[in-house]
Amino acid sequence: MKTHLFLSFAGFIALLGAALPAFSQSWPAGVTPVRGVVESSSGDLVTVNSKTGPVKIRLGSPLQVYRDIPSDLAHVNSSSYVGVLSFKQPDGSERAKEIYIFPEELRGTGEGSFLLNQSQPNTESNSRMTNGTVSGSRITNDSVSRSRMTNGTVNARLETSKLTVQYNGGVQTISVPPDVTVVALTVSPEQLKQGENVLVLAKNQPDGSLTTTKVISTK
Predict the structure, then answer these.
(1) Which of 15, 31, 209, 216 is most buried, most CB within 10 Å of its CB?
(2) How many CB atoms lie within 10 A of CB 107?
(3) Chain-wide mean pLDDT for the chain?
(4) Per the structure, how many domains does the chain have?
(5) Minimal CA–CA distance to 161: which of 183, 185, 179?
(6) For range 29-52, the mean pLDDT
(7) What is the pLDDT of residue 28?
């Protein structure tokens, strides 16, 4: 199932952790995202090889490592915080391709909006990622063209074909077909492994060090 995604969950999370100049992302209070590859993990210390070099992060307890599993629309409800990848229709509306469900403790991750591949306008690769709060929904089956990513908190049931996603500074309304791909992030019992791609939701300490209890595996 995941091999057929337009944007894999790994790619989606990687974008959340990337520093993109045209986009002002916000994160939960005090969170410093660190994206990279696990260089080593021993005891209560993990070293992540980021774009700027190795970053040492102290692991708190209990440590929660999140990995993705297949899900469905039945798990998208009025308390969900989600990401939606959608395609722009000929009439300018948006149609959902994939929905990513975040657990409650990751609510607010990467809130904001930005275009992906801005150098390729008017193509399906020119998509938008938006994190926000969904305030309405229903089901439709329209045609597809350009794409957009929308993340947010679901505040209404999927009884209709529209998701109205509000975020800091904007809003998007998205059609949701019944066959939309749904993926959920859940806590995994597996420990961090050397070579694993991760997004670490770290926090700065008074002495300048970083600590975390939440790590998202991006495979």
Answers:
(1) 216
(2) 15
(3) 77
(4) 1
(5) 179
(6) 92
(7) 74
